[in-house]
Structure formats: structure tokens, C-alpha cells
Amino acid sequence: MTINHMAVYVTNLEAVRAFYETYFDATSNALYHNPNTGLKTYFLSFKDGARLEIMHRSDVRAVSQVVADRLGYAHLALGVGSREAVDRLTARLKSDGFAVLKEPRTTGDGYYESCVLDVEGNVLEIVAEYENGK
């Protein structure tokens, strides 16, 4: 079994699409629009085959604040290959004004990662290859 894709509702489809294309080399399909429901979506594909669906409907309400520690969705982890790639991308995002919640570090379970917010405040982990081989 594989996870086919993850989906997230966003306020600004174009800004979110540009963020993932710019910082994570995602490629997008053409905009899908269902005029009956108002749903608009893009599927963003990453080089390893993972996909992220970004969706917008005007009747979907925004959460008033980012809550990192709660039940339910916690974060999206995007692998960038190496420790150096984690460091570079985290520094680039920070320089471009994005919030860095956790600077690059090795976690107790063996991941080298940082934690940032995307353009709409969604929590992202930027991770290197898992070093413990599990």
C-alpha cells in the first residue's frame, strides 16, 4: 500500500502553488474547477512521486491560529536528501521571511530536520535522509 497524496485547503491557491514550486521543485497540473461546488484544486507532484493536493473553496473557514501540538494533522515532512540541503533550504526560507519554528538539528529518533511554516502557516518539516536505516 502507498499513500497516494495528501490534501490541504488553502486561501490562496496561486501563492501556495508558487511556494512549493519555488522551494521544493514541485510541478503542478492544470487548475481543476468544479463550478457546482466552487472547488478549485491543483495537484503538486514532487520528484520522488509524492503528491500534494492544494484545494480552495470560498465556504471553507480558516483556523484562527497555527497550533503545532494538537490531535489530528501535525505537519508535512518533505525530504530534501542531505543535511546540507536541509541547512541551505532552511536558511533560504528564513532569509525570504518565512518563520523557522525549529532550526536544523538531529532529533532523538535520528532525523536531521528543521521545522518551518509555509506561505499559509502550515507546519513543514524539512528532513534529510533517515540516518538510522529504519
Summarize the structure.
With 134 residues, the protein is of the alpha+beta class.
- Give me the Rg, rounded: 15 Å
Overall pLDDT: 90
Give me the count of strands: 9
Uncertain segments are none
- Given the C-alpha coordinates, what overall shape results? globular
Percent of residues in β-strands: 35-45%
The biggest beta sheet, please? Answer: 5 strands, mixed
* Structural class category: alpha+beta
List the total number of helices: 2
Q: Give me the strand/helix succession.
A: EHEEEEEHEEE
Percent helix, as a range, is 10-25%
| Spatial gap, N to C terminus | 18 Å
Notes on the protein architecture:
With 134 residues, the protein is α+β, with helices and mostly antiparallel strands. The chain contains two helices and nine strands. The protein starts with 5 loop residues before the first strand and ends in a 6-residue tail after the last strand.
